[in-house]
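Sat 14:20. Reprocessing the chain from the morning session after the first attempt stalled halfway. Input below, unchanged.
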Amino acid sequence: MKLLEFIDKVKKRPGMYLYGDNPLNSLEMMIYGYEVALKNHAIEGDLCNFRAEFNNYLFKALGWSTSRGWANAIVANTASTEEATEIFFDLVGRFVLLKYGIKSSIYDG
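Finished this time. Tokens:
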């Protein structure tokens, strides 16, 4: 499964994938694990180096510190974990469109 497909599945049914006090943290760790697995097996994914690239996007586009990862950056700049989750999908959609030219169902804009 491609990372973009996985993120789309999470958006459709977040309760199946997201948990804890900071649900985006759990998602960030899942994505990190996915990237590590791809790298260890020399498989090229659809969103190469997503974590680092998305961190850079948030820093450059919004000026958000991503020193503690993109999940914490989004949570720190939103009012609730629910809002943070909604904002995450919007930001990923914008990022993927800008960086890769892919318009996905993740992005409603």
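The longest helix spans residues 81-100.
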